[in-house]
Amino acid sequence: MDEDEFFSTSTGTTTITNRYDLEKAVPHEKKTHFNEINRYWVNKPYSFIILFKSKKENEIKYYAIEPYQSKIEAELREYIEKKLQQEIKYGQYTGNETTRQHKLHNITTETHKLLRRFGLYTPSTSPTTPPTSETPIANEGQSLSARISRYITRFKQKTDKFDLKQVVATLSTNGKSTLTPTANPDDPPTNHVDGIEATPTTDADLEKSKTLSEYQVEKLLYYLQRDYIGYEKIDPIKHDINIEDISCDGYHSPVFVYHTEHEQIITNIFHEEDELDDFVVKLAQLSGKGISKRQPQVDATLPDGSRAQLTLGREVSDHGTNYTIRQFKEVPFTPVDLINWGTFSLDQMALLWLAIENEKSLIFAGGTASGKTTSLNAVSLFIPSNTKIVSIEDTREVELPQRNWVASVTRPSFTEDEQGDIDEFDLLEAALRQRPDYIVMGEIRGEEGRTLFQVMSTGHTTYTTFHADSVGEVIKRFTTDPINVSKTMFTALDLVSIQTSTRVNGQKVRRNKVITEINHYDAEDDDINVQDVYQWGAKDDEFEQIGNPNILKEIKFDRGWQQHRLEREILERKVVLAYLIKHGLNTYTEVAATIQAYINDPETILSLIADGSLEESLSDLRDMESVHIDIDESTEALVPRPDPDEDQITEVDKILHRAELEPLPKFENAMDFEGEIETLFDMYGDSSSTSLDYTLTTFIGDEE
Prior knowledge:
- The chain is an alpha/beta fold.
- It contains 28 helices and 18 strands.
- It has 5 domains: about 1-60, no CATH class; about 70-190, no CATH class; about 230-330, Beta-Lactamase (2-Layer Sandwich), CATH 3.30.450.380; about 335-550, Rossmann fold (3-Layer(aba) Sandwich), CATH 3.40.50.300; about 580-700, no CATH class.
- Helices cover about 40% and strands about 20% of the residues.
- Strands 1-2-3-6-5-4-9-8-7 form a 9-stranded mixed beta sheet, with helices on both faces.
- α4 packs across α9.
- It starts with a helix and ends with a helix.
- The relative contact order is 0.07.
């Protein structure tokens, strides 16, 4: 890796966090046995992640690298943080402004005002005036470190904690800024750090300095913003799109993360005991909930959509306060990702596409972290945008591009008697009055499952996730207490996909273990008839079709299609997915726009694929008014999209080769002559006579 390039911004300047900070972050005794295996930015230019393999301990370490602060800089940051808590909380800048940008502006503005008032910083864009008789405390002849220490020590001598009122009073009387304010004193000056030395300012340098440098102010602002509106010490991890879970197991325990590639690994982040208590209380407050000794455990949803399980103190945990955060994927994975990962085969995904488009209900079941919600989010791209969708969740996990979507979330009661509580039952009842075509339920845990099947039985297409390791377990848990769905009603469900987290060649992977059809209820045996359609074989890591899907026969009958039309519809969807995989069109925007555009106008998308011009048209496709695709490009760039392996490339090439033998432009022609072809099949039936083959070739080309 080119370190100069890594530690450079787009304008060619040095990043705020650089080599010096990396050197400070890794203890000297560990450098002898740490080998770097990966490095990437998560919040450039302020924080990056570096993964080490320890030769001595034979384990992987996760290091979050942020700007190093000297003791004096850290003391100043602590002081300013306490001052900001009062200034921003009660000052004129808060009001009703709650957006992140407003808060960032307020923090920056107030910090610059404080630094100017204390005479600690002279912005390069602010002209100075000769000193007045009212100079900041101990400004004359005092070094920056001495002045900061005096500010802090002076008030600590009076009390064990900062007396903010006394600080403000003293500084207001004795400390007047020697700087002329900018045109608008409430706006922070627009500074640009032109360059950073390889070894930034140390405590020794601060002993000689009179004011803070631009670089030091940038570091200070980063930490203030991180601590005030971010996630404090774990903020870099929250920015890491490779992380699925973040957890701290108690007092004196390091933070652990679940990395998509390396699984559970230890980090260099620790919380002090009081700090951990305060942080968990903050997480609860951010989620709009309270946590205390009276209620020491809380399940919460953080502002970014992540799920958090919080425990305070030793009331119910021997190791003390702990938390686990299940990261919310701001940019969901797509059907193309699931194929490239090997979670589903291309044939399976084409089947699911056709089934979902034709309003067949589906449950994704499996164990914890088996990929149920990931699959649910991905295949939801197959729901047509001209339908109405209602989602119902305890915590927000479903993310859809379709604009006609009502996202409902449960709400606990604000009182002890549970009045005002809104649960899944209430939301399902409301959903029926909203006339949805599709209902997406985040997860079934209990009695709401019975209501869901009642909804299914009334003709509403439904998708959800469920904890169970087999189809038999799914049926057993749904048809017995506490859910207790009638077996006759259970047949309203069409498909069950069993997900599993397993290992292939020593690497942890997620696989769709089986896709099973729910056929009918056998009253004589009091049993539900099911049929496995696709099954995954662990021995060779391959999917095998083991039955002819009855669901396809149902779709053919409902749509009035002949067999050849059904096969063509499946082939077209395979071609679309294969083309995206072949040409590396795997971002959420590219996949979502292509799928929704195909559903709305198959002929146009197939023509673009035939001409090789699909990629050029994607910017127009994403502007469909019924589809809302608003993905930040910088965030998308961080998503670890998988590439297809050799076997998948071979399969893709076969499908595209078949499309060449049956030229894609002729797919469009075949649609023009659909009536004639239907007549021919009526005349010849299902025979494969020479005359029929010859006649069909005239319309749709040769078969492979």
